[in-house]
Amino acid sequence: xxxxxxxxxxxxxxxxxxxxxxxxxxxxxxxxxxxxxxxxxxxxxxxxxxxxxxxxxxxxxxxxxxxxxxxxxxxxxxxxxxxxxxxxxxxxxxxxxxxxxxxxxxxxxxxxxxxxxxxxxxxxxxxxxxxxxxxxxxxxxxxxxxxxxxxxxxxxxxxxxxxxxxxxxxxxxxxxxxxxxxxxxxxxxxxxx
Length: 193
Description:
Blueprint: E1 5-7, H1 12-26, H2 33-47, H3 53-60, E2 68-70, H4 71-80, H5 86-95, E3 107-108, E4 117-122, E5 126-134, E6 137-144, E7 153-155, E8 158-159, E9 165-171, E10 179-183, E11 189-192
């Protein structure tokens, strides 16, 4: 099997965007050795594939020695960030506008009553039912094929069908600090109220 490599300098802008998305999903900026240890474990937990801490450190420029990257590494990081693989991430980057006016239904958390439930769906086959607790806070009450688990809590001001959803302050079992999480990076979310 031939290990395909990517010349980092040729794709630096796209690679930086991938690293930013990975940090958003991880809920922290990669600055300290412990950040890379946490990321290596989070990637393994989420994808079932292992990237060494030193590989991550080199990719982020924390240690020297990264002029090329194995496609495997980029594919795994792209999957962790919610894409099918590196090529899918690159396609999405080229199709993404910097800003957009949307004309669709918006669900504002302030209009919901505590106890209201929403079912969120996104690619590929993720389904999560959440219950509103008030003050922009939600709890996951059912989860299928998603990284969010029953009992996870988060904050969200509102939902736009067809757009990605950013959840703030996610408290997830096994992680000792609040993280941020993006749902529906490919095609956005669908909402059943």
